[in-house]
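To close the chapter, one final illustration. This time we ask the reader to focus less on the individual chains and more on the assembly as a whole: which components sit near each other, and how the overall shape emerges from the parts.
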Amino acid sequence: MMREQYMRVLLRRSEGALLRLIGTVQRRGFEVTDIATHAQDQDSWLVMLKVESARELRLLERQVEKLYDVIELIEEAPRFEHPALAAYA
Amino acid sequence: MSDTTDMSKTGAEWLIHALEREGVDTLFGYPGGAIMPVYDALVGSSLKHILVRHEQGAALAAVGYARASGKVGVCMATSGPGATNLVTGIADAFMDSVPMVAITGQVPSHLMGTDAFQEVDVFGITLPIVKHSFIVRRAEDICAIVREAFAIASEGRPGPVLIDLPKDVANARATEKPSTREAKRPLPPKLDAIQKARTLIREAKRPVLYIGGGVGMANAEAAVKRLFDQTRIPAVCTLKGLGSMDPNDRLYMGMLGMHGNPAANFAVQEADLLIVIGARFDDRATGKLDTFAPRAKVIHLDADTAEIDKLRYADVALLGDLNKSLDALAEPTTIADWQTRCQWLKAQHQWRYDAPGEDIYAPLLLKQLSELGGPDMIVSCDVGQHQMWVAQHCSFSHIANHLTSGGLGTMGFGLPAAIGAKLARPQATVACVSGDGSIMMNIQELATLYRYGIAVKIIVLDNAGLGMVRQWQELFFNQRFSEVDLSDNPDFAELARAFRIPARTIERRDEVLPALTELLNSEGSRLLHVRIDAKSNVWPLVPPGKSNADMIEEKTS
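The assembled structure is written out below.
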């Protein structure tokens, strides 16, 4: 079942960082339906994404977190709701 | 400081300096316009540059070098076509998590984005197949970027890193901006996760160790063997985990998956607990995913959080230091019935080598090659039927001795990877097992063998066609054979001799042992061209989209 989900990413302002983030989102099976970026300061962007997919967002989040340009994922809901990963939250 | 002493090196010179400081001894590449400053700086350096004959050969040789040695492999090429020719090798490194740094020349900064001669956006092209990448914009950043690239390539789950270097940056003089970046060490596993895993192991009636290539990357082969010895939990390996287990151990079930050993697949299907160690539930290993090990709980050990739950729910995830996690899992088990069952399965599914007929039987030839070469021989193979026969019938003492393109399935991998492996471990015997399709994809690297006197023992299993595709057309496309005939192949022995590599052709069974002995015992590179039956198939087999429980065996008439 397709679902709309939201993600907020604090991104380093380095060359290719935006492309890398959006590419990862699409390649992992999520459609970007809305996107806004805001330069926080000289070094970082805040990227707000609305994505649509039948896949679970947490699987995408773990791929996004691996990107070296990603400073952090900004979460509203508690992270790592998965019991096996709770220890790493 | 005055400018004259301060600006002592160009960007290209700093690059070479930084590579030397990383401990790089060998790199693989091919020069061209945009990377000429780097090749100029290479003159007089301590680096041994191997001039390949196609950039794909450079990238795949770097992969072979890295996989055989555990060190970071380095390749370089010029901009445009040089860079795009590296792409397949970079993708191969990405899919098989191989630490690699690829360096590409780029057109000068002011021409970037103008469709200049030999300009291509290799940074953009490779975004989905690199762990990370850089465009060097200032010469003073080069040393720090190289340090960062090597750290990223090797830490955590390894992978390829691209450094794109515009020509003007390579020519600019700069001071060094040193970097102290260290590769991140893996964190120790969490205690409560360990406790949960131990409980699952204690309670399991039918546990199986499912061992993948991550074990080699984490230098955890000894720890896996310890866990296996202490628990005596039956074990299976993925294609890339082969070499981590003693093939003769009565509780080692062999490779699982599409062309695995039925004993391994059936044990996994019956398991009530899978302890997944550096493996990722690849479709070639699992068959139809929702029927895979249907009653098993999962303990998943991996360096990469993104692998947890990606394809299969994990009841317990053990991230971080694989060695520490494995050592913490040695829990006494009482699984005598299950061990008996697994031994029975293994006994029921021994490979047979008594094929009828006079044709050379490739599985037996590969078994004999493996026995003659010994378990410390490195075997690099290409992709197709022979690749699966190598996995089934050769034995390896370490994961690093079996070089196979597992994730990407790159035809043309075998010869350049063997070159890289031999340069990384000159004392080892290195064999390259290829097919008549695959060998032609990087045949030009025979010239590299000759040029540097690199001793690789090449076996070309020639079934005059694309055997694996032909097999699928026979079995799954109603025998409608489409574009798989290669019966007009060149004479491979003549071809090798044209590259000044001694060669011979065999086609009868009684020629096999003398030819293999000659191949392994003679000095230098040799090519053995082996004609085999064009209709041979790889058995057994899980049909695509089917469950591993539905493995089919060869019909004997």
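Residues 1-5 of chain B have pLDDT under 50 and may be disordered. Chain B touches chain A through 27 residues (CB under 8 Å). With these observations in hand, you are ready for the problems at the end of the chapter.
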